Amino acid sequence: MATAVxxxxxxxxxxxxxxxxxxxxxxxxxxxxxxxxxxxxxRKDRIEALAEELTAxxxxxxxxxxxxxxxxxxxEFATAFRTVGVxxxxxxxxxxxxxxxxxxxxxxxxxxxxxVIGTLNLTQALxxxxxxxxxxxxxxxxxxAGHATYEGGAGxxxxxxxxxxxxxxxxxxxxxRPVRVIEIAPGMVKTEEFALTRFGGDAEKAARVYEGVAEPxxxxxxxxxxxxAVTRPPHxxxxxxxxxxxxxxxxxxxxxxxx
Length: 259
Ligand SMILES: NC(=O)c1ccc[n+]([C@@H]2O[C@H](COP(=O)([O-])OP(=O)(O)OC[C@H]3O[C@@H](n4cnc5c(N)ncnc54)[C@H](OP(=O)(O)O)[C@@H]3O)[C@@H](O)[C@H]2O)c1
Fold this sequence. Notes:
With 259 residues, this protein is of the alpha/beta class. The chain has one domain (8-187, 218-247): 3-Layer(aba) Sandwich (Rossmann fold), CATH 3.40.50.720.
């Protein structure tokens, strides 16, 4: 029988990038599943508002402003816990969609720093606490970009391949310890900010990403898969879950309805 609620000793769930999109939806889902959620992101106002909303609904939620690329701040954050049950490495995203020939190296660096080093920072800082819980789970929200490339995507694809490799290697290295490593690789998800951030605030370009796609995934669709994977019994490790909308067969094969 699957246990929906984890053992009491391991009930803190830390979610990075919880100020919107998939991270906020995941925090909601995990709170509903009985976890004491700790919301982190750089935008304090947003995570505080979500923590208040969840607390008002009878859940346990706290906000902790954190930049995942700031190692000293991450180490300081980790001292707040004796044990942690779940770490969801979700903070990240894409910058630009230029071809390799003209891509901005600074965008590539930022994507690597956030998607890979950010995940590394949190994972290294909290691994002892996950171990100490006796039943810990590390989730890496990578992307289908972590598994195949597409034109104009190289910088993001390279970073998400890095996140994928981190998850896969960590699973090998800690086998035998009481910590699972789960990778969730979503395809096209329509969140408020992902494409907007990618295109530097250009709403028209951002809208084009989803143009004609009947039903892109929602943040909650992805959060649902995270919560499902995390709430399997402790001996069940969902190594990798690829989730796409029905209209998307691959990173480059998307059905778009034309009017
Ligand atoms: N949307 C998609 O189509 C899609 C598909 C596959 C995978 N993903 C991945 O899923 C994750 C969430 O995506 P989303 O669609 O929910 O995007 P989003 O709405 O843009 O959310 C990104 C989150 O990451 C946080 N973040 C960014 N840089 C950070 C930093 N240096 N330190 C701490 N937090 C940081 C942001 O918060 P602050 O700005 O407040 O710090 C925000 O909460 C990302 O890793 C993304 O790459 C998205």
